[in-house]
Amino acid sequence: MGKSEVWFVCTQSHRERVFKDEHWDQLCSEFDVTSNDTGQSLTSEQVAEGCAGYWGIITGWGAPPLVADVFENDPDLRIIAHSAGSVKYLLSQEVVDKYLVPRNIVTFSGNVAMACNVAESTIGLLLMTCRHWVHINNHYHETGEWHPPDVPRNVQGLLGSTIGVVGASAVGQEVIRLLQPWDLNIICYDPYVSAEQMAALGAEKVELNELFERSDHVTIHAPTTPETEKMIGAEQLACLRDGATLVNTSRGWVIDHDALLKECQAGRLFVCLDVTTPEPLPPDSPFRGLKSVYITSHASGAGYYGYFRIGEQTLQALRDCRDGKPVQYAVDYSRYATLA
């Protein structure tokens, strides 16, 4: 029996980002791999035209949406291995319902591997923001003064605090896991996770407003769905205590930016936005001029560790599918509508 044929539709630069050489060499030795050698990202039409006969397709950043013609032209397809995070832009609900579910085509996502990078960044951003390190550093370099007069010397750090996690997503769960050794209290809002499941993760399940009322620091990890648009607005922000920290590494969509701006201009909150709406913020955005707002340019997902885990997990997903084993981190189509 020959090797399963796999089409890597991404660019060379994407391969180098997510695959260590050893994992790529193993992939090529165990599967019949065809690489995209055009030097450019392929279009949906190009994938549909060239996909016939492939058992697996490896997608990633820069890969186009897989439209209906892909599945019409490739009845042999058994797995889509997405060597990146969210698959929602890649596969429409119609494609999932019409082709993936009836044909039992597996979709793997590297979202959990990506979560490692974002969660690590989240911890750092929480510390940086609540301890005002950027403001202190910039003030010293700009003025030569040892400490900014508008920054308190005594702050509520993470230790001894209550941290509110909005969303027990892959990233939210990883943040909770990383914080377990710390002497602090973790509360979490997620309507799709039971109190028992939340306790098993290491957090207390609470409602959204209660989370904002009780937290010293809030970190947001909610998906982009119709239900989460501006989910955090004036009502929730008003519940935060003076001097509280708010970090968003999910999507700008989740926060009402007008309401957030009012709170930041009032000087009550210290905020770090890794994501914004729009992105990037326009040059005249008032957020850019506020010292209490740090903007980190959607950088939290980057990092060798998580990226290379994507490649390693992609290889294992292909192996497991080939061998008839359950594919870890396969997308649950029954929950597709609520995925990020």
Tell me what you see in this structure.
With 340 residues, the protein is of the alpha/beta class. The protein has helices at residues 12-18, 21-30, 44-50, 68-73, 93-103, 111-130, 133-143, 170-179, 195-201, 208-214, 234-239, 257-265, 304-322; strands at residues 5-8, 32-35, 56-59, 79-82, 106-109, 162-166, 185-189, 204-205, 217-220, 245-248, 270-273, 293-295. The chain has a seven-stranded parallel sheet with strand order 8-7-6-9-10-11-12, sandwiched between helices. Strands 2-1-3-4-5 form a five-stranded parallel sheet, with helices on one face. The longest helix is centred in the middle third of the chain and has 20 residues, at 111-130. The model has no long low-confidence stretch (mean pLDDT 96).
Highlighted features:
Rossmann fold, 2 domains, alpha/beta, single chain, 340 residues, 13 helices, seven-stranded parallel beta sheet, five-stranded parallel beta sheet
